[in-house]
Amino acid sequence: MNIKLILPVLLGTVLTSHDNQTNKNVKNDEVKSNKATEVNINSVLFKDVNLNSAYQQYILVKNALVESNASAAQKAASALQLSLTKIKNAEKMMKSASALSETKDLESQRNLFSELSNELIQLAKNSEFSNGEIYVEFCPMANKSKGAYWLANEKEINNPYYGNQMLHCGSVKETIK
Questions:
Q1: Is the pTM of this model over 0.90?
Q2: Number of domains into which the chain is organized
């Protein structure tokens, strides 16, 4: 056989195989990432469909603040505000969500998130679940060392008030079932 004919065919096969494997890895990573987000968001279900929607948006705001992503926090807060319009007595939360969606300042967003969290904690405590449980978590250093609470689907602390600066600062204070 002629080596000049075999080499390009062999090289093309190797490169195609590598590209296909790389694409599979990227797709697998995307699926894992999407499933992780889906599991975290949907592991808690309230009997009230409107509260479910608002809580899911709240978790997206929290996750954006954990990542110190002010832009994503704004977008999620805007969606949260819309979800809250369908819940009775949620005016204070809507006001906080609205203000959070209008500011790009991460520190201001985190202060507003504290107000929002306090209200949602009370609402969650007075609501019925059809699945899961929620953890009330607390960082003693947040809010100028006054401390601040937030809700999470998992016991692992991922601090929305400090993000990567002090990602695991805090503790679980209560479990709502």
A1: no
A2: 1
